[in-house]
TrEMBL record, chain A:
PROSITE patterns xrefs: ABC_TRANSPORTER_2
ABC transporter domain residues: 9-252
Stated family: Belongs to the ABC transporter superfamily.
Protein name per UniProt: Nickel import system ATP-binding protein NikD
GO terms for cellular component: plasma membrane
UniProt KW keywords: ATP-binding, Cell membrane, Ion transport, Membrane, Nucleotide-binding, Translocase, Transport
Reactions mediated catalytically: Ni(2+)(out) + ATP + H2O = Ni(2+)(in) + ADP + phosphate + H(+)
GO MF assignments: ABC-type nickel transporter activity; ATP binding; ATP hydrolysis activity
This enzyme's EC code(s): 7.2.2.11
PANTHER family (alphabetical): NICKEL ABC TRANSPORTER, ATP-BINDING PROTEIN, OLIGOPEPTIDE TRANSPORT ATP-BINDING PROTEIN APPD
Top-rank EC class of the record's enzyme: translocase
Record bears the keyword Ion transport: yes
InterPro entries (alphabetical): AAA+_ATPase (IPR003593), ABC_Ni/Peptide_Import (IPR050388), ABC_transporter-like_ATP-bd (IPR003439), P-loop_NTPase (IPR027417)
TrEMBL record, chain B:
Single Gene Ontology MF annotation: ATP binding
GO BP, sorted A to Z: transmembrane transport
Protein name: Nickel ABC transporter ATP-binding protein
A family per Pfam: ABC_tran
SMART domains reported in the protein's UniProt record: AAA (SM00382)
Length: 278, 204
């Protein structure tokens, strides 16, 4: 459904200190990244902060800052996904549930915002209003929450509003960027369950997260990223026991560092980190 | 010994958040605190650290009230480090606000020298969290309240942060109250655990 073929992304930065501070340098944020996402599947993309997970989402949506240097190809349903096609499909076929709750308009009531999302996806306004109400009810937001402003919502409610916006757009590819950060177990279960439901309807869901443990129960495949590189893509069933089914040392280390596993740094991860620093 | 005696707190007159909470944290003790969001975990943490004043009851440190000025011996570590630093200060100034950590301590917490000349916005959440934790470990500090400090970190970074903190706490016999949703993490870190719900503390 979505294929990423050797995507390389570079962003400019300026050196600090006094040597050639005027000179623009390029930091490689994604390095020859290739991956395929299929419909009906939740595909988790897991990595530490700074691994380039969110940038991957922006690259797919075409929301990168202008001076970015992008190489490689994206294919959506077999056809190349270029900037103009991204603009056309964004909000209709491609939806992003952003990481920051500040993505909600602070001056607009919840239901109006969701109706706008439906209208942007091409629904007539009367229908959009109805659809927004339905979607919000579906995500268990009551009449009071539907008429609330963003600052009156709790973190979990705001996440569900953002999910409802992706839901009404009837997008076929939904990218959720860290949807479970800062939620208690009950709320997290609801938000992740909503994503699983979208995938069960035949949509493609990309779940970007650092929270490997809670991504596993709902994900079909897990891709581990590090420093802009793809380390490994494994079925989520590979993450069990001592992680022997995992092929790379880094994903094993990530798995074993979880508190319900060994909660220990393996010698491999230490060694790898030292070489990384050098 | 940090003592909370029959604390009560409410934000609005008719809905109490905490009622009659008593708690003791000894030097060198790791105590876990769990609870649903909105249960009042952070409020309790802030009461213990003197960020909020209880409406009933009191907090004592070695039998005396918390000091009004100077370095606070009970430090509260917040969930969002970006809200706990001055965005116009460079990292070096932030880190050295109360004391100057040694190079070895910086290394143990993974604080890299090249961050020091930067502004906090250019560090990631996990990097800034490590700066904030190290900042709070001034020699006068006896107790820490760690309020969800590792939720935004990936497993390896989370583990390294706790290992560094554990080592430092062991060395100086710091008492630590760990607030988290993550029961597995609490089981790993804290021999004693409490659960907060309906304004009451229960052993977990």
């Amino acid at each position: 459904m979505l294929t990423i073929d050797r995507l390389t992304l570079q962003l400019p930065y300026y050196a600090d200190g006094y040597t050639a501070w005027w000179k623009r340098r390029w930091a490689t944020c994604l390095d020859a990244f290739s991956l395929t996402f299929s419909p009906g599947e939740v595909h988790a993309v897991v990595g530490a902060s700074g691994a380039g997970k969110s940038l991957l989402a922006y690259a797919i949506m075409g929301l990168l800052p202008t001076p970015a240097r992008l190489n490689g190809q994206l294919y959506y349903q077999g056809k190349p996904l270029d900037a103009s096609r991204q603009r056309r499909l964004r909000g209709r076929e491609l939806a992003l549930i952003p990481q920051s709750l500040s993505a909600l308009d602070p001056l607009v009531r919840t239901q109006r915002q969701v109706a706008w999302a439906a209208q942007r996806a091409g629904q007539p306004s009367a229908h959009a209003w109805h659809a927004s109400q339905q979607a919000l009810t579906h995500y268990q937001l009551d009449a009071r929450a539907q008429q609330a402003y963003a600052h009156e919502l709790s973190g979990g409610m705001a996440r569900r509003v953002l999910t409802a916006m992706a839901h009404v757009s009837q997008a076929r590819l939904v990218i959720a960027d860290e949807p479970s950060v800062g939620l208690d177990p009950h709320q997290r279960q609801r938000v992740l369950g909503a994503l699983r439901e979208l995938a069960d309807q035949g949509k493609t869901v990309i779940l970007i997260t650092h929270d490997l443990r809670h991504a596993l129960p709902i994900a079909d495949h897990v891709t581990i990223m590090r420093g802009g590189k793809l380390i490994e893509t494994a079925p989520s069933s590979a993450f069990q026991g001592s992680g022997a089914a995992l092929t790379s040392a880094y994903s094993q280390a990530l798995w074993l560092a979880l508190p319900d596993n060994a909660f220990a740094t393996t010698t491999i991860s230490r060694r790898e980190q030292e070489t990384n620093v050098a | 010994m940090l003592n909370a005696h029959r604390l009560g707190f409410r934000f609005s007159p008719d809905t109490p958040i905490l009622e009659d909470i008593s708690l003791t944290l000894k030097a060198g003790q790791w105590l876990g605190l769990s609870g649903d969001s909105g249960a009042g975990k952070s409020t309790l943490g802030k009461l213990l650290a003197g960020y909020l004043m209880p409406q009933t009851g009191y907090v004592t440190l070695e039998g005396a009230a918390l000091p009004k000025n100077g370095v606070q011996p009970v430090q509260w570590l917040p969930q969002s480090p970006e809200l706990a630093v001055n965005p116009r200060w460079r990292v070096a100034k932030i880190l050295r606000e109360a004391w100057t950590p040694s190079d070895a301590q910086c290394q143990a917490f993974g604080v890299k020298p090249k961050w020091l000349s930067r502004f906090p916005q250019s560090l990631s959440g996990g990097e800034l969290q490590r700066v904030c934790v190290l900042r709070a470990l001034a020699p006068e500090v006896r107790f820490l309240v760690a309020d969800e400090i590792s939720t935004m970190l990936d497993p390896i970074t989370q583990l390294e942060l706790w290992q560094a903190l554990k080592q430092e706490a062991q060395l100086r016999q710091l008492g630590v109250l760990v607030i988290s949703h993550d029961t597995a993490l609490l089981e790993r870190l804290c021999p004693q655990r409490l659960h907060l719900s309906g304004g009451q503390l229960k052993p977990y």
